[in-house]
Amino acid sequence: MPTNQLTTNHNSFFKSPAVKNRIEQVVGKRAEQFTTSLLSIISNNTLLAKATSESIMGAAMKAAVLNLPIEPSLGFAYVVPYNRKYKDGTQWVTVNEAQFQIGYRGLIQLAQRSGQIRNIEHGVIYEEEFLGYDKMKGTLKLTGDYVDSGVIKGYFASLELINGFYKMIYWPKEKVVDHAKKYSKTYDKKEGDFKPGTPWATEFDSMAIKTLVKELLSKYAPLSVEMQDAISADNEDLNFNQSNEIKDAEPINTDQQLLDDLMSVDTETGEILEESTELKENGELDLKYEDPNAR
């Protein structure tokens, strides 16, 4: 189907009375602005335009509930097209569905809303500046020289609360690689590499940092209701354990900006592992969302 026809279909869906009413229930007076922004994102991405309207709605509403913007350039949350294969009877069927993904900037913002965080840092450590890591104290020893390029030694993320609590985690690059290979569904064991066009293949450093940020915040930061909802929402995407037999699910090779800073859904790796639960078996969209302003 031509892209302009797909866009027209999405416009009709999101402007239908039933859908408009659902959106208004969640975002209130911002409903029109929310819909306009979402349709703009769809029209600017031909691959996303091919996704089902219901899945786009489900992904976008998750971001709305968390009060996170979905504009790709901001890096807080994303509506990303995925090819999902599932077994329908005896036949394998491929469906283009949108998935909600939270960026590490979104996780940091949710953590900061608790009012208990003084500072969060994250980044890359290069071999030229690395002098050692004390496991007992959880501290890095660096040269102190400014280094922003070279051979990467590892990655870190740190958290400081207003009550004085401080925690820093550091993973050598080898640990990140092993971790991603073990948990990521985008790692092809036969080829011995990550599938082309997927975040671990194109943006390894960003994915590594996101993995550490989520590891840090999920284990050591005060978990607000919003933070718990974000982790829960992530874990609802692409459920490989549901009744429909899932063969594979991988991000479509979208433009680079859309793939930058994706935060996946696995609590350990930052990879989407679960099938969307927004679609019922009969294809209807289940929109039981809370009003974020009512919390």
TrEMBL record:
Positions of region (Disordered): 273-295
GO biological process: DNA metabolic process
InterPro entries, A to Z: RecT_fam (IPR018330), ssDNA_annealing_RecT (IPR004590)
A molecular function (GO) term: DNA binding
Biased composition (Basic and acidic residues): 277-295
Name of the protein this chain belongs to: Recombinase RecT
